[in-house]
Amino acid sequence: MIEHFQLKLADSRMLAPTVRHLAFERADGAPFKFTPGQFIQIHFNYDDGKPTKRSYSVGTPAAASEVDKLELAVSFVDGGAATKLLGGLEHGGSIDASGPYGRFCLMDDDANQRYFLIATGTGITPYRAMLPSIAKRIAERGTRVALLYGARNEEELLYGEEFEAFAGQHPEFTFHPCLSRAARAAPRPNDRRGHVQDVLPELQPHPEHDIAYLCGNPDMIDANFTLLKELGMPIKYIRREKYVSSR
Ligand SMILES: Cc1cc2nc3c(=O)[nH]c(=O)nc-3n(C[C@H](O)[C@H](O)[C@H](O)COP(=O)(O)OP(=O)(O)OC[C@H]3O[C@@H](n4cnc5c(N)ncnc54)[C@H](O)[C@@H]3O)c2cc1C
């Protein structure tokens, strides 16, 4: 059910030079209900008083259907209205929000052998929220998961250590950082140079056994959608969340 509520900023930190992690609590003290993969909208006014809204994926790793903290990763955009609001919000500050929205979620009746989770930038956020559900699927069905994450360099691999740690605990989960501009100072075995679509064929997507999720930059999503179709993946097994600007 979609609700409107106030969020209070409880904590924050910079994840990368232009990406801020924000942890909110509902101002009324109620838990936040969502399914991993969903997003919220924040509601605010432009400087001229005109109302507007922006969407942000919820990144809180959720073992249950409700969480105490609503965590977002916000990438700063030059001149962006929401960037100004969320980039400058101080601890204790409030914003208006509504949600949850969206269906970019793992489905209960998925019977696939492997998931491809593919992202660039803050598009990684919904997969962070899904980690506890992924752990459950691995334990119950032996599902395999390959996370391909495109970033320009090491410093822009958001939550990289969390995904590395999860992969270390779950051999069925592999994490493939795809670095387009510079390799890590100390490269790891699954690191690759290039864009995610350059690396995807190496993992041999299977038309009947795999389901792919694509999240983040619209150009990246289109490139990978086309590639997956060319590799024979049925459209129904390619799920997309495009971070389009919602002005
Ligand atoms: C379902 C959904 C989920 C989303 N989740 C997230 C999320 O988890 N984290 C996140 O950071 N964003 C997310 N977005 C994008 C977010 O909603 C905003 O569009 C983004 O934060 C920019 O808002 P802004 O008000 O700062 O910039 P705006 O005021 O909207 O734009 C300022 C200028 O920058 C341009 N611009 C806007 N976005 C970009 C961009 N990405 N790259 C380059 N130029 C741009 C605009 O065209 C405009 O010229 C999501 C979008 C959708 C639709």
Protein architecture, described:
It is a single chain. The chain is built from five helices and 14 strands. The chain is of the alpha/beta class. The two termini are 25 Å apart. The model has no long low-confidence stretch (mean pLDDT 96). The chain binds flavin-adenine dinucleotide. Flavin-adenine dinucleotide binds next to β5, β7 and α1.
Question: Features of this protein?
Answer:
single chain; 247 residues; alpha/beta; 6-stranded antiparallel beta sheet; 5 helices; 14 strands; globular; binds flavin-adenine dinucleotide
Calculate the mean pLDDT score and round it: 96
Measure the end-to-end span: 25 Å
Strand content: 35-45%
Tally of separate helices: 5
Strand order of the largest sheet: 5-4-8-1-2-7
Distinct compounds present: flavin-adenine dinucleotide
**CATH fold category name of the largest domain:** Rossmann fold
Give the biggest sheet: 6 strands, antiparallel
The CATH first-level class of the largest domain comes to Alpha Beta
Provide the low-confidence segments as ranges.
none
Helix/strand order? EEEEEEEHEEHEHEEHEHE
The appropriate CATH architecture of the largest domain is 3-Layer(aba) Sandwich
Secondary-structure-derived class: alpha/beta
